[in-house]
Amino acid sequence: MNLTSDQQILWQHGFVKLNGTVVTTWAMMVVMALGSKLITRKLSTGAVISRWQASLEIVVTGIEGQIEEVGLKDPKPYLSFLGTLFLFVATASLCTVIPGFAPPTGSLSTTAALALCVLVAVPAFGVREQGWAGYLKTYTTPTFIMLPFNIISEFSRTLALAIRLFGNMMSGVMIIAILLTITPYVFPIAMTVLGLLTGMVQAYIFSILAAVYIAAATRVRKPKPPETPAPEPAKASTH
Amino acid sequence: MDSITLVAVTSIATAGLTTGIGCMCPALGEGRAVATALTSLAQQPDASATITRTLFVGLAMIESTAIYCFVVSMILIFANPFWTHVIAGTAGK
Q1: Any residues with CB less than 8 A from the CB of A131 and at least 6 apart, and which?
Q2: Segment A14-23 long-range contacts (CB within 8 Å, at least 24 positions apart)
Q3: Which residues of chain B neighbour A70 with C-beta distances below 8 Å?
């Protein structure tokens, strides 16, 4: 039994290998890029818009709203990165309904690459928003002693992002494969439906966590608000 | 017992124990988290969006510990480095 689709070698010439992960990733990329190119070819701002444009608008505005709720007040610069992460992971898990399709996110190399993108993007956005000095100063908050722990957390959360997505997707594929040998007809379908649900939740969590990390890195430190008197506690009606 | 049997027995037993214990404890934690979230949803239905989002992120954090255990047991069963080492050692003799 293959643990990941990395071990599924489809074509080999010398030491150039083409494994299942690369093929499915590129197939998904082609489908998504061509699809969005076709849909956005003739956009209209009139009262009547095509169904495809409406569905794409729902997706984009939904992602934008979620990014804004996390705390990034101006979601435009982050939309392309976070939206790509979400759409890639979500499409990978949706495509598992195609028989014989092993999701590329079920391989540790893909999820490690996605997590490394987040690892690079967080300081990049932070530096762009606060400048080098401002961003590097966030590593020494609240005190200087926390510097090594802040650096460790940067790497450990990258590892956690990669392993979490890999474990969830791989376990879904593996449970279906095991159930196919035990109870062939009905029960694997139920697990596939459950896998679709967890796949969407994982896509949401991956992109939301990336958004939370970026929001923490780009938050410009505001001067302390003036002291306001605490609101009086509501009087308990004891009488 | 020769070393192949020893490695096999240890790997299989440890894999079962890892998934067993590693599912139990995060399940308790997730149960507590969901119960608290339901209580606060009942008290403050207006804040449902924030509570739900925080709950999802927190559940993902808790669940990842269970996922680590699962990955470790999968490695022990399907991609055990000690097993391949021992097999290579006996083949070389």
Answers
A1: none
A2: A20/A102, A21/A102, A21/A104, A21/A107, A21/A109, A21/A110
A3: 53
pLDDT tens by residue, B23-32: 999 999 999 9
Task: Name which of B70, B26, B61 is nearest A202 in CA terms.
Answer: B61
B12-20: list long-range contacts, CB under 8 Å, 24+ apart.
B12/B76, B12/B77, B14/B73, B14/B76, B15/B72, B15/B73, B15/B74, B15/B76, B15/B77, B16/B73, B18/B69, B18/B72, B18/B73, B18/B76, B19/B69, B19/B70, B19/B73
Per-domain residue ranges of chain B: 3-87
Structure tokens at A211: 């958004």
Instruction: Please tell me the distance from the alpha carbon of residue A138 to that of residue A127, in angstroms, as a whole number.
Output: 11
Residue segments in chain A with a per-residue pLDDT below the cut of 70: 1-3, 220-239
CB contact under 8 A, B70 and A167: yes
Contacts of B78 in chain A (CB under 8 A): 1, 3
The string of pLDDT tens digits covering residues A38-79 is: 988 888 888 888 888 899 999 999 999 989 888 888 888 899
Domain B3-87 is found in CATH 1.20.20.10 = yes
To the nearest whole Å, the CA of B79 is away from the closest chain A CA by: 8
Using the beta-carbon criterion (under 8 Å), do A69 and B49 form an inter-chain contact? yes
Closest chain B C-alpha to A186 CA, distance in angstroms: 25
